[in-house]
Amino acid sequence: MRSFTRFLLAGAAAAALAGTANATTFTGDLHVDNSFSAYLSTNDSQLGTLLTSGSNWPSTYSFSVGLTPGNTYYLHIVGDNAEGSSDSGGTGPYGRWDGFLGQFALSDTGFYFSNGGQTLLTNTTDWRATPQPNQGSSWSAPSGAPISLGLNGAFPWGFQSGFSSQAQWIWASPDLSGETFFSTTISGAVPEPASWALMIGGFGLAGAVLRRRRAAVAA
């Protein structure tokens, strides 16, 4: 019984080490005109945990969060348009423009974005977006494709330093009120070959200990 327990403990330790090898940090930088909140969720139909928010679009907002192996995550962005005539007329503190510019990265191959890589830019392919008629709308999983308002450097925002020139300003549609919901998927990858080898090696070591124990008892 003690030998079997050691076997299980050794296997669990190997699995834990394999998980540690795949520990992943998810980072992001973004601008959203006019204001926004960013969330991380394990369910596309639920908003999730707040990562960061802001209302000054020229500022870069950043976040960094650890991901747990074995989960699928969703990055949710709620982008707010400015309210009232100042938004539609362009004469208020925000102007009439709305857009989301972002770049995101994963620290290793334990997870991957919907484009299959460890980096992701805002674009019209790897994101889902749905316009909402009113601010404060209840979250629902976005289903449509965003539109492109131009690459980093496009009018009226200009070039945002520190961002890829290939990142696109995106929105759900050129609406002038309400909100836009954005979502993209972050999937857990299968263990790397090195992690599998570590796990198998741990079970093999446990098996060798068990065999030696049995041989000693027989002698």
Descriptive overview:
This protein is α+β, with helices and mostly antiparallel strands. It folds into 2 domains: 1-22 and 192-219, no CATH class; 24-190, Jelly Rolls. The chain is 23% helix and 35% strand. It is built from 3 helices and 12 strands. The chain has helices spanning 2-21, 85-89, 193-218, and strands at 24-33, 35-41, 49-54, 61-67, 73-80, 99-106, 111-113, 119-121, 128-132, 147-151, 168-171, 179-188. Strands 2, 3, 5, 7, 9 and 12 form a 6-stranded antiparallel beta sheet that branches. Strands 4-1-6-8 form a 4-stranded antiparallel beta sheet, with no helix packed on it. β2 and β3 (49-54) form a beta hairpin. α1 packs antiparallel against α3. It is globular, with a radius of gyration of 24 Å. The relative contact order is 0.22.
